[in-house]
Predict the 3D structure of the following.
Amino acid sequence: MAAGRGTGKRKSRRDARATASAGYASSPTKIVAKPRGRRAGIPLPSPVAGTNLVIADIVLRAAGGLLRDRMEKGLLSARYDTARAQQLVDGRSIMTSLALWGAGHLARRSPLGLAVVAGALAAKVMYDRGKRIEAARRSPASAKRPQG
């Protein structure tokens, strides 16, 4: 028999605490919301929770985008001059931006998606290296080198 109304059994203290902490009153048939006190901290801009989430999402996405752009320019500046690095980052087409967003979204959503994106990136790196080696073999400078 379950502990509760009309069974004649008393609830243990642990059951009573679990029921109370879940927001229920002593009767399992009534759901009573526990009043929550306002935690001290940063005052929120809106009394509506959904609005606060939208604001936080926009701020985090904007900050993440700015940080990502700065990081990309910094990484490219090590290899190229600053103007070229800025042109590479800022000169992306809409299609490139959408493809990068899609790949990032796919990699973030599932381990299988991460494996697909990582495999595609590894294949692209191998392709680029192979093209560079092939171009070096075909260049006139490599034809003048002594074989041996």
